[in-house]
């Protein structure tokens, strides 16, 4: 009898062992098998989320076939406590093993929606909403808008639903500190107060990625720290013999170069004109400095300069004063700063717009006057065509 019981017990244990082994083998196959997703999707791992929550969310969006099996597999692999905060793209057919690797690897987030806020000269900004098609690099343009013109429904719905979205703040070269501050204040996705407008020229133009609710003052502080570093590096690598006595003077010249040309290949030529003029004791005679004296960097003038304004005695009127104005007139980018301290070696003393977006340069006043006459003719033709 006992032999029979022992035999039956052994048989039961063998059956249980086989069943467990079979279950493990099945679980491993399921864990590594292609998943249920028929198309790529984006998935957010919130900061501090538990494995249970993430596995349930993955099952809810159809990324895994079983939340329980995903948790078991994660624990078995020793990765149950290695979830990384971020938004990730999960490809179609990804296995649970592959999904686990994605949500625990970390690295740059892959957002479906991107909102880029581009600051403008007016002291506001334009928000450009884009969508990346899952599983591809195709970008769809959903909306371009300024807040004062109204917020489109597609953006409002994404914000209200809490859809993960990456925000970028883009500060172009040549904006004044007031324009940057006002632009940041107008961005509804940022938070916090700005204590004061930073010194002119001391904010590095750049495009930075931020989270919704990022602090405005912290953004400004980071831009100022970056500009200080850029200026210090450029000053340390400056040419010998420049008519500049300090990094501050280099920044002033760089801001004028930034406002005079948007053509990258011209920056060092423009710099050479101003450096040659300073070396000869000639006035810089540059319109952007006059405009800054009128607007104080607040907004845009919106019209041409009057003859009386070119004759007005102000600290920024380089048609009247000698040398550099007292402060920068905008926030220059790295390229303009580097051009200010490393100009081309030229005999050039003049330049004027050439009608193509660039400038015509000249060494002599006679040659310059011919270039000016050509530009006046181009202006007249453009004016006639616009009537």
Structure description:
The structure is a single chain. With about 375 residues, the chain is α+β, with helices and mostly antiparallel strands. It is built from 13 helices and 9 strands. The protein has helices at about 1-30, 50-60, 65-75, 95-105, 155-160, 175-185, 215-235, 245-260, 265-280, 285-295, 305-310, 335-340, 365-385; strands at about 40-45, 85-90, 115-120, 125-130, 140-145, 165-170, 205-210, 350-355, 360. The strands form 3 sheets. Strands 5-4-3-6-7 form a 5-stranded mixed β-sheet, with helices on one face. A two-stranded antiparallel ribbon has the order 1-2. Helix 2 (about 50-60) crosses helix 3. It is elongated and about 90 Å long. The mean pLDDT is about 90.
What secondary-structure arrangement, pairings included, does this model have?
Elements: H1 2-32, E1 41-45, H2 51-60, H3 67-76, E2 86-90, H4 96-105, E3 113-119, E4 125-132, E5 139-145, H5 153-160, E6 165-171, H6 177-186, E7 206-210, H7 216-236, H8 247-260, H9 267-280, H10 287-295, H11 307-311, H12 334-341, E8 350-353, E9 359-362, H13 365-386
Parallel strand pairs: 3-6
Antiparallel strand pairs: 1-2, 3-4, 4-5, 6-7, 8-9
Helix pairs in contact: 2-3, 7-12, 8-9, 8-12, 9-12
């Amino acid at each position: 009898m006992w032999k029979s019981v022992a035999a039956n017990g052994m048989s039961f244990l063998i059956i249980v062992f086989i069943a467990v082994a079979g279950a493990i083998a099945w679980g491993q196959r399921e864990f590594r098998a292609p998943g249920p997703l028929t198309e790529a999707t984006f998935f957010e791992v919130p900061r501090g989320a538990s494995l249970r929550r993430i596995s349930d969310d993955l099952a809810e969006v159809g990324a895994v076939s079983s939340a329980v099996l995903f948790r078991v597999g994660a624990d078995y692999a020793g990765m149950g406590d290695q979830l990384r905060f971020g938004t990730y793209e999960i490809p179609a057919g990804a296995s649970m093993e592959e999904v686990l690797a994605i949500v625990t690897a970390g690295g740059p987030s892959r957002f479906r929606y991107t909102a880029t806020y581009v600051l403008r000269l007016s002291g506001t900004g334009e928000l450009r909403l884009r969508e990346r098609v899952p599983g591809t690099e195709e970008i769809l343009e959903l909306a371009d808008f300024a807040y004062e013109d109204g917020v489109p429904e597609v953006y409002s719905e994404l914000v209200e639903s809490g859809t993960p979205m990456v925000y970028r703040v883009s500060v172009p070269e040549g904006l004044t500190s007031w324009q940057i501050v006002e632009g940041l204040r107008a961005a509804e996705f940022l938070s916090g107060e700005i204590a004061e407008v930073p010194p002119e020229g001391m904010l590095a133009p750049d495009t930075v990625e931020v989270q919704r609710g990022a602090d405005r003052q912290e953004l400004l502080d980071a831009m100022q720290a970056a500009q200080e570093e850029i200026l210090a590096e450029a000053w340390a690598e400056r040419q010998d013999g420049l008519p500049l006595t300090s990094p501050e003077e280099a920044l002033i010249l760089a801001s004028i170069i930034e406002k005079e040309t948007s053509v990258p290949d011209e920056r060092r030529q423009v710099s050479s004109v101003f450096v040659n003029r300073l070396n000869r004791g000639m006035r810089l005679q540059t319109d952007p400095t006059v405009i800054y004296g009128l607007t104080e960097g607040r907004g845009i003038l919106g019209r041409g300069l009057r003859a009386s304004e070119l004759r007005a005695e102000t600290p920024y009127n380089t048609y009247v004063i000698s040398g550099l104005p007292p402060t920068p007139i905008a926030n220059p980018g790295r390229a303009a700063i580097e051009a200010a301290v490393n100009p081309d070696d030229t005999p050039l003393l003049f330049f004027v717009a050439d009608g193509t977006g660039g400038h015509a340069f000249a060494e002599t006043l006679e040659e310059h006057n011919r270039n000016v006459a050509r530009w006046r003719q181009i202006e007249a033709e453009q004016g006639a065509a616009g009537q």
